[in-house]
Sequence to fold (291 residues):
Amino acid sequence: MIPIEILQKIKRIQVTTAKKATDIFAGEYKSVFKGRGMEFAEVREYLPGDEIRSIDWNVTARMGRPFIKKHIEERELTLMLLLDASRSNCFGSVNRLKRDLAAEVCAVLAACATKNNDRVGLIIFTDKIESYVPPRKGTPHVFKVIREALYYQTEGRGTNIPLSLEYLDRMMTKSTVSFLISDFYADGLKKSLAVAGKRHDLVAVQITDPRERIMPDVGVVKLEDSETGKDYYLDTGDKDVRDNYREEADRQMEERKKLFYSVGVDRVELSTETPYENALIQFFRRRKMRR
Fold:
């Protein structure tokens, strides 16, 4: 039984993200993500300037004058959301937890898909597949996606991104638009990202928090690795420790950027520190300009 306060939160997020999808995202989303192909619509008489390759020679021969085939884009898409729910995402030092931010991003993308009559599905994973919501249409289905993303109680602690991408391939027989939402604290990703990126229009949404890059000076602290449960002691009063921490965080971030670029997977970075709307809009617009 879902607590009433969680249901209220889910409903609030659904209403908020539906408005954002209507006001800002729906047009950008539609212009960036193309349909699965072209379907035949009708034939009409040839007009000067039409593509000669579009001429329907059978109709032309019957009618004694040139006709062309007219096609329209198959707009309907399948949007898949792959949500990393590992323990490292249950962290946030500013406005919200990384997992809450990721859940809201799932909600607004699902709302965009619904506004454009696309199907949307959800895969929640840790070091195993935790939940699968098959792609469907409609507002009630979006509510289910938000509920799962926000409330689902996971069993695993770690992260297995290759497993989630393999599962996506098994469940989806056709190409999808897939958003992989994670902090990407995992190794051995290159091959699985490259394979999935060839079959699907894959976008990496990297969720970050400022404390993962900048360590404050608060003396000796006890830290726990959220995915392994191991404890560590760190002297944050030591400037060298803080500098090394930041350098390592910057190095990891740069490595991730290079990784996504090398396998041709688009990346957008979102932080718990700032509103996500502008970053998503800029990402959509960059893709539109590139296309």
